[in-house]
Specification:
With about 60 residues, the protein is mostly helical. The chain is about 95% helix and about 0% strand. The two termini are about 30 Å apart.
Amino acid sequence: MLEADENRDAGLRAADRIEQALGNPADQRGTIESASDTIGVMGRTVAAPAGAATAVQQAVVALF
């Protein structure tokens, strides 16, 4: 649960950075790249348990 809250907070911070950068064109590139990195980390955090669940499901199917 804590990871989900941390991921949500990180996503909100990334969205805030994008909104702030839209007001200042000079900051847009760095802000969007930083937000992309944050979103990428969040994606890997979600993908790892999903991959493990898929592996377990495939193992169970193979047993039966």
